[in-house]
Records
---
Amino acid sequence: MKLLKMQRILAAMIIGLGLAGPLSAQEAAAPSRPAAVADAPSPVLFGVRVEAGDIDRVRAWLDAGVDPDFVADRIGTGLMIAAWNGNLPMMELFVARGADINRSNALGEQALMHAAWRGQVEAAKWLLARGARANAPPQQWSALHYAAFSGNRDIAQLLLDHGADINARSPNGSSVLMMAVYEGHEALARLLVGRGADRKARNEWGDGALEWAMKFKHLGIARVVSSADEFAEAAARPKAHWGEAKKSLLASEELERLLRVRDYIEARGMALDRIDRQLAAERARLARDLIAREALPPRSVTLEISARKAAPREQKAALRRSGAAAGRRP
């Protein structure tokens, strides 16, 4: 009886997860080719050709009616990809055809943020001259956050000169100065402090610029963001007071539940594609939670999973630095 009851419970889970029925509304709404354009590219092909700088192919697609805000499989629209690479002629083509210069991708990023992250000064100047917004709404990542985190002092200066909020806060309240401190960019931290950045700002976890400087052993920056008395007091505290400068991906009850359901499905020879997608979505949610907790910009880290479908419980997951942040602490 107990076995029968467990089978019924797991069967209910399968139905509730949509594993035995038709595609969910979200799956059905996945990006597809525009109906009005016979030769529209796939999101993957579109992204590859824009990244490669194939302006003739891209122009032909636009001439055929492809949306100038067509979204590739990664980064975002063609304009965002061109800004990421600093390709001004490609940027000019998309804007001339009506691309929205302030459009956001799924991570809330705009073309200017991509240029700031990658240190594309000329692309940033071009975008700002054509109406790109230097500021984000309150409690959202801004281009200045991205410039500070990735250490692009020239773009940070450019954004400040165009009215960027030096004390803008991220979704969890971390300041621009805190981003520079986190990555150990002393020259940028000095610039921000010199331009009037608030050295006392704290995020919702109670961390501030001084706490991060001490935690990650950026003692030169700690002096920049504190008074002599504050630094002396901080330096006198034991290292354990500041915590360890490392991160790990947390588990969840939902992840364990999905793994149990997967075991049940696999044991009965049923298809695993949908449950594996559910597992991937849960791991992505955990990654987003960790990014928010640690005050990291979405573009700064990648979720790495060493996974074998044959042994999903042996999977290991971690957040790795990516892009301009690769190789830096913590």
Note: The chain has 17 helices and two strands.
---
Amino acid sequence: MRIFVTGAEGQLGSEICRISKHDNFGTYLENYEALNNTTYVQLDITNRMLVFETIKKIKPEWIIHCAALTNVDLCEVQRDATWSVNVEGTRNIADASKAAGAKVLYVSTDYVFDGKKGMYKEDDKPNPLNYYGKTKLEGEKIVQSLKDSIVVRSSVMFSRDKPNFLLWVLNKLKEGEIGIVTDQINSPTLNTELAECILKLIEMDVTGVYHTAGDERISRFDFARKIAEAFGFDKSMIKPIKTEQLNQIARRPVDASLDISKVKSLGINFSNIKAALEKLKEQMKVME
């Protein structure tokens, strides 16, 4: 099967390409880590004509659309650029896929929810609090208008070698004590497990919306404490703070945790935090 991965330089797109046994094509905007099993194409997804030309030439069976602007605070202030990439870029991918007869899997986020209840199911009504979440929800609607599509929503992805919350925590702990919020709750997700899940979903040729995230509801504070323990730091170095102390530009949902029972019913499982951190440590040993 020929797959086309947008954002192949990111922590999810790169992992999908790394573990995929298919005929892989991946896009990048500026830089990428070359993998022997992937053909790379430089592509700005906001360039509609080039998107159509590229997809028509490659003729993929599935497009896995990972490319997006994801810095939540930056998205809040750079709204035109965010809309251009996250909405119009997604529209270009969707329209080009339709013209080429390809199916689309779109990677979305827990931030499409307002965080008032937590453990959201796929049929719960989205109500994003920030501009990033709003643009990702618009992208969902575009992709869901296609005949054959999958939308996956994930949460606080972490990985061994790309910028993410876990690596940020580890770097800060090397400097000393660190304050982490107790009032933001999510379902942290190991990028390798999400990549494996996505490949299984397209191989199963399913359609619809799936919550694909780590199998544990946890606050950022408790997640950071588990990170500290797993990597040999004193967890008392993690100090509790409230979101309001951070003065973040964009609003965050209090509890955006995801219920993953639907994807588990397909036989696809995710680890809890402890098991996911053990997997990550093994991956990091291989890199040494």
Note: The CA atoms of residues 169 and 224 lie 7 Å apart.
---
Amino acid sequence: MKLIRTLPLLLLLALAPSAWPHADSSVNSDDLLRTGRADEALRALTAEVQANPNSAAAYNQLARLYYQLEHWDSALKMAEKSVALEPRNSMFHQWLGRAAGRKAEASNPFTAFGLARRVHAEFERAVALDGNNVSARSDLAEYYIEAYAFLGGDKNKARLQADAVAAHDPALASYIRARVEEKLGTGRAEQQFQKAIADSGDSARYWIELAYYYRRAGRLQDMEDAINRSLTAAHHEGMSQYDGAFILLRTGRNFPQAVNMLRDYLSGENVSEDGPAFQARYLLGQLLEKQGNRHTAADEYRASLALASQFRPSRDALARVSR
């Protein structure tokens, strides 16, 4: 899924809501992050850390907010602050690893190699601190799968993470094994992706992961069929619509369906922190723009910026269509 999508399925933790006392008492920062109200979240969290500079949780939320905004330097800095304040918090180390990973993508190769080692170290630390943090194990497994051997990549270690996850989440374990088989080119990856779907009781999320696999394999009709199956899966959540639309956009397939999926996603109650509303508006604007509807695309970019005025992709897109 986007490092959250560089390492394809990095699962976000469901954080317990916490109302910040120095912000509007009717709003909590987790809800603002989940719904993508980035400007409101930034105001609330800035007030919180000014009033309570030792709030590791607030710095972690700021890291996640800047992560959403694709401000990798700020995300990394805030994640470092949260870990410095609570060095034994597994989730905070996990987010520091994620921020370092995305910073690495935007860096020159020399800097990226150093950051990759940091990603490795932070994910391993997150797992060492809490072996039941299955999303950290998933992150670490994806690192083992994707990284070069000299940076700590190791397919056998990824399999061990799948074994550790299996008792908690059999579907996720099958997904990790599928990714290992895919990377090794054994021909058994598709079977394991299908097993993840079965283990999950027919979850839309794993149909989408199968669609990503088909995209990487160049099997675009199978990819589109898997996206369609996700829409009727027994277990459905909004994020699968966001991801399905993202795949269709990136592969140039069925833009009208992708538009409908994003509109359904935005109108529902299952908007996710991993697909905040301002990013969904930006994707919707891109789809409309590609269909020649520049005026409505501009409206979507403005709607994105109304939620997240610092989101550069929407700002650049609005300038482009407004010329």
Note: The chain has 17 helices and no strands.
---
Amino acid sequence: MTQKTQVDVVTAKAESDNDAPGPSKHFHPCGLLVSAAAQDEWELAVHAGVDWIDLKDPRRGPLGRPDLGLARDFAQRMRSLPEYRWSIAGGELDAWRHDSDEAFCRILGDSGAIKWALAGCADKPNWKSKVADCARALPGSHQAILVHYADHRDCNAPTWGSVLEAACQSQLRYVLIDTAVKDGRGLFDHLSCDSLQSMITQARWMGLEVAIAGSLRLDQLAMGPRVQAAWVGVRGAVCDGADRTSHFHQDNLRQAVAIMRGCRATGKQRESMHVLR
């Protein structure tokens, strides 16, 4: 008889129950996460009212780790703004070295988070132990964000079920669904809305908040609330042109903020109508 994992049990429960957990099965507020690459960009994001500001170097890959000096300046600025959520890209877990890279953890204080992705880890037997070690190096395990690549087969990354198991074993709070290969395809080229919503429901049953990203366009941001994501992450969509390594375009940034605020307002209106009925 095959022993069921925690993910198997939760999946069965989620599929047998029409009510997804969370604030409401009818409305789940969804925030905007924007990845900045320089000081002028994170200041634009602050002034635009972005919900979550992330720092990464897009020239170094999908989860490019920024220079430590820039990360320190960013962390100092964000710690002065307690109303904002913020994070730093830690790069690929397989390339993370505790002795040389732990400085990125120390600058987070008790408010920032750090993201690790899993390219190249699918055939590494100790990657879940390394996730646990990295989480223990933080003031709180909730400050670690584990990234699942929707195109995991293209980068030898673990499956969604394995990522969920690792996140739960290390008592994480967040997971991010992203894409590793930036070749013009986006998240919805790899996953249908139904598949994505099923994955997010599964994660929510396990007490995890899910952010989605992966070359999303401005006209796709409203899909976040539809699939019940807690956060929608963008970079290229708010840049000047389609190149994610170019600089922010202020009008695109404002438009992204307006779209997500509109989604929240519409969702709250629908929830109020449901309650009144």
Note: The longest strand covers residues 85-92.
